[in-house]
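Hmm, how's this folded?
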Amino acid sequence: MPAYFHQRRRLRALLTDAWVRPNSLVEKCAVGGFRTLRDRFNSKLADATVYHFTPSLGRFELLAKIQSGIEFWKKIQARNAWFQKEVLQQLDKSRLLETRDRSGPPNVFAYSYAARRIFEAARRAGCKTVLGQIDPGPYEEKLVASLHYSQPELGADWHAVPSSYWRDWKEELALADRIIVNSPWSRDALIESGAPAGKIFLLPLAFDPRLQQGLPKKSFPRTFTEDRPLNLLFLGSLILRKGIAEVLEAADLLINAPIVLWLVGVPGIRIPAAAASHPRIRLVGAVTRAQVHDHYRAADVFILPTHSDGFAITQLEAQAWALPIIASKQCGEVVEHEQNGLIIPEVTGAAIRDAIIWMLSNPSRLSEMSRKSVERSIQFRPDLVLRGLDTCLQ
């Protein structure tokens, strides 16, 4: 998003928590949990005005690690407060909110849950405020709570959201002139939670498939066998919200089918012993970004049976890797049923099993689905999707 505006000479500044230029000291010294900082750079913004708080972030995270007893949501809220404090200080120091030309004060975009104080300052300066809503809000929280309480045996890593978190969020909604959501699912969930429908603007996530040019076409066998099984990739956090419980159930239902289910990501549940030793399941755990690409490359089908997602950008990545997708309705609208994948009618083990059986029974259709995945991925290119921002900001 900032790159889109910068290329059009409309970006006054990007303020971000971390920004690590290639070959910098931070880039070379990033180890352990800080390795992900190496990805915090975009060459399209190499000559843009970027204010970042990387050293301060490092201090914050180290202190939070030392204070191991701090409650989960208190840490989240403390991080959000830290970021807003840093932004406000930089806004004041750099006088970024001042009117500098005939176009008037700048528009201020900030993401949900860390925007309230920024929007207060922006409003005082006469700026238009745009909230990027990252998820379906309280509606999703209630849904996840029900999943947690209905499956206590999985020991899900879940913590109830404090009321103060939602109170601050409602103030963000009131301060925002526009609220950007990435899917009809999020839009409807927000309206259900009381968000003002007139402020909501739908803009899907963007992904540039050209980053993965030159990939070989996917090839599928005439039939799947034990020697050449259907490789299904589940990539992301292994949590109840993402449908991991139902995926494990589907694997049990397909114990005699020629499939391999690759689970790539950090477990957020207690993986049952039966699943850990399941002949159809490969538990991979956390991987590097380069290894993520390897798993996309090796897969036949991507599976995303999520109960709720603001969008799930993994769908766009999977499409760019020419993968047919099995997805639920509760995420961004990427899959077109029986075109570039299958949409399951409900998130259950039986529904996931049925979709997988369909693909096992129709290997000749997978090549066409693969081709259409690549074709559809073009529709989510940043230069096409982000044009919607111009309408949003009018």
In short: The chain has two domains: 2-208+385-392, 209-380.
